[in-house]
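BUG: 3D viewer hangs when loading the predicted structure for this chain

Environment: internal workstation, default settings.
Expected: structure renders.
Actual: progress bar stalls at 90%.

Input used:
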Amino acid sequence: MLIRTTWLLAAALALIFVPRPASAADEPKPLKVLLITGGCCHDYAKQKDILKKGIEARANSVVDVIYVADGSTHPALPIYGHPDYAKGYDLVIHDECAADINDPAVVEGVLKPHRGGIPGVNLHCGMHCYRIGNPNDPVTLGTPHGFWFEYLGLQSSGHGAQLPIAISFVDPDSPITKGLADWTTINEELYNNVKVFDGAHALARGKQGQTDFVVAWTNLYQGKTRVFSTTIGHNNQTVEDPRYLDLVTRGLLWACDKLGADGKPLPGYGKN
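Structure tokens produced before the viewer hung:
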């Protein structure tokens, strides 16, 4: 009887310590991403859908969109005057074109979530937004003229004609670029670099003829907030290019600290 009792007790203990299968509750929750888009000069009506579909297909994420069908350089985005617009989100994508939104208080409101630590991704004309002063004048950090550029880590003021851009990855060891191959775009806008700040880290350069500028980089805003940016992405054909969507999604995952050193999403944050 003692032997039987001991065996039953051992079996019960073994069942207690058998690892249970992972349940849905154990899986990481999708990243909550806010995509802000609208304004001048781009087909944001289509690009917002391309980006949402492409990112959600590559990362465990839900992309919510704030979009206004306003083709001006001062689009009436509802985030203005509401500095808590990113509450509850893991990351904000700035894909707006709002060059003439230049009230310092409004710009600081746009920046408030990032100053508070919410990561950012900035695409194409996002680099030419929120200009306080002449964008061709190199900025001094800490001044209103530098608010937006300090967040980006790079100051750009314009571009030339649309021509193919030869993209070369200059840091192949970065998790964002690891394994990605250089490519040449269709006709695209190559944004200039007025100033690249010391804290910015170049990932890729773009070349049109003899003109050569940084086109993808990371920045650590105010020493704490991860920011990824690329100036590529004017035309729909480029935005829907899998190589572009791979780059943007990796930048997003890196900014959220969900990208492994091998360039793959951390467990639970990729898509099969």
